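User: Quick one: structure for sequence A, then sequence B.

Assistant: Sequence A:
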Amino acid sequence: MTNQPATSGSTLAAVPKTQEHTQTVEGRKALMKDIHVKWNKFSEQEVDALKSNEDLVDQLVTKYGLAKDAAQRDADTLRAGRNI
């Protein structure tokens, strides 16, 4: 026998989602939608795959041929303080 408590399945399912978590998820969805609307060369899958603000800038440089400083400025303007 061990002193470990018996567990069945994941304990994550038992943790209720907080209002803050819900707002974060909704905020990310809204940001991703805004990115897709503004830069429609991105597929939904490409937008969903973005992992960071820097990743967005790199993709703008690659996909739209923007200079990095212009891509950074445009991304910052659209994000308006929101982070990916």
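Sequence B:
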Amino acid sequence: MNNCEICGEYVASQYPHHLITRGAFGGNAAADNPDNTIWLCARHHSEVHNIGRDTFFKKWGLEHRLEVAKAAFRIHNGGEA
């Protein structure tokens, strides 16, 4: 069972939200690293897409999660996300 990391609501989807897209990771399983995923309910998943990744994570005080994902990306791809 997975719950939204913002509000705690149950997340019906079996797929977490990727902080940095799978495509940016080259479309491979490295994007599924727990450092690059977050469980979001439908409301918060819509919000992240509506207001943008950086704004969303700043709003909810989760900038550290985004920095960890960016570090994982740099390790895997050698560039900036």
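The CA atoms of residues 13 and 77 lie 28 Å apart. The chain has three helices and two strands.

User: Thanks, that's what I needed.
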